[in-house]
Amino acid sequence: MLTEIALIIGLVIAVFLIARLSRYILKEVRALKVIRIYDDRHWDFDHILSQYNPYYKSLDDTVRDRFLRRVLHFMEDKEFEYIDLEKEERMPLLISAAAVQLTFGLEHYLLDYFKTIYILRENYRFGLYNMPFEGHVSEDGIYLSWANFIREFTDYSDGQNVGLHEMAHALTYVNFTVDDGKDDTFHDKFKDFSEVARPIFERMQAGESTILDPYAATNYQEFWAVSIETFFERAHAFKKQLPELYTSLCSLLNQDPLTPRKIIDATFLEEMAGTLSETALSSEVLPAPEGTQL
């Protein structure tokens, strides 16, 4: 009997160790692949990002390289499914850049839980909802309509950006709903953000107008996502009109869009200097789905 128990325990341990070893090997294979892609396509991707992503274009040269490497890691970590449209090379690159833009100041940025990103041609219907969606996040993955995504990055001043909006939902999902891809600093600081944000949200629900789109008053999850859109696209006006909320977002995300380097506290970057790759940076309960409706 004892021998059988010992054998079972040994098998369980062996399976666990093999699984960990497999994950480690996969991570390093991806890291080497990213290095090759970066060496071969660096200038091509730099050109695409500079053309379509104003945040990347505004980056200081000292951090552009780090941004692009993170984008390549994110892109390699995900499966991209194209629904009713043909794949274009810029699609996964720009969508990955939207995620990296939001998480650029965080240690864990891969949104690990989400393995698949679905790209649809136009607005779409989802479930029993009557209104069309521009995008949404659920346990199945991240969904984005490409027409809206590219249009809203092209008009980078109106506070409307479905890419950033849905990545904001995805970030809170991995930190508070599934705990897979959690960034401890973001998780712990979110309560400080909420102390500032909730009174503003409640006043908006009572009818007050702010620089934030009225859609922010729908529920607190949408308030969070709309705040992110405005934080990046209308940073100057946001800081002037809602300075405490702007400052709390800077602290939460460890970045300030109004500065060329963006990142505020780079301590964790210095601690990781010299590592082979950033794949080790794997990277309020929210209802599913979370989406942008028209």
Walk me through the structure.
The longest helix is centred in the N-terminal third of the chain and has 51 residues, at about 1-50. The protein starts with a helix and ends with a strand. The protein is built from 11 helices and 5 strands. It is about 60% helix and about 10% strand. The chain is α/β, with parallel strands linked by helices and about 290 residues long.
Name the shape in a single word. Answer: globular
Proportion of residues in extended strands: 5-15%
Distance between the termini: 64 Å
What level of helicity do the residues show?
A: 55-70%
Sketch the topology as an H/E string, one letter per element. HHHEHEEEHHHHHHHE
Helix count equals: 11
Spell out the key features of this protein.
58% helix; five-stranded mixed beta sheet; alpha/beta; Cyclin A, domain 1; globular; 294 residues
Give the topology.
Blueprint (H helix, E strand, L loop, with lengths): L1 H51 L1 H5 L2 H17 L1 E5 L6 H14 L12 E5 L12 E6 L2 E5 H9 L7 H15 L7 H22 L14 H14 L1 H7 L1 H11 L13 H5 L18 E4 L1
Parallel strand pairs: 1-2, 2-4
Antiparallel strand pairs: 3-4, 3-5
Helix pairs in contact: 1-3, 1-4, 3-4, 4-6, 6-8, 7-10, 9-10
Offer a quick outline of the entry.
This protein is α/β, with parallel strands linked by helices and 294 residues long. The chain is 58% helix and 9% strand.
